[in-house]
Amino acid sequence: MPEYLVQYGTSAFVGRFAATGTDLSRGDSVVVRSQRGLEIGSVLCESRSMLAFDVGGELLRLTAPADDDAGQHAAQLAFEILDAANLTDQAVTFLDCEVTLDRRGAILHALPWGECQLDDHLAGLSDRFHLAVRLHDVSHVKPPIDPPEPKTTCEKPGCGTAEGGCSSCSTGACGTGSSCSKGKVNTAAELTSYFADLREKMEIQVAVRTPLN
User: Fold this and answer.
1) Domain parsing of the chain, residue ranges
2) Which residue would you say has higher pLDDT here, 103 or 50?
3) CB 98 within 8 A of CB 68
4) Alpha carbon 174 to its chain's center
5) Model pTM above 0.85
6) Which end of the chain is more exposed for a tag (fewer CB within 10 A), N or C?
């Protein structure tokens, strides 16, 4: 049974969904049965064993016009639930709401800023709209962290630049005495100056050399 990676939900979850006799391509709109209920998702690619994604559920079919209509009705109901949910004096803001395609469940995206008890509030919403209203606390979702910037200097005392390369290494300021193994010449002018200094030192050595005969 083939499996596909499918992206679904407002939070763009990705899961592995098993399909029965369906040949799918990237971008295909499909109906899946996730742990939350029936949802519309988008195919990313066929799953491979080395891709460590959780099993999301079952991929049922390509979406049909009736599924698109059901999705629009579910979205309208989600707006109504969101408006009703924010009529509370609890220390929380509800940012978004999703309703499953079969309209059996709703997921409220909540951002609390203090202590709050929402059990009674969620139960009241469930009774009012005749479906199970659950909570998704977005404050527990950790944002991605950028990798550290690569090092651009030799980090020795007196090494004089934080961008590009080590402009002071050729003078011995960073403690190497000649050149810095990690430093780079930063500009064409520095390169010209470096080789001019090197040529001058070579000419001095030639001038003081003692001939053999």
Assistant:
1) 3-63, 67-140, 150-208
2) 103
3) no
4) 39
5) no
6) C
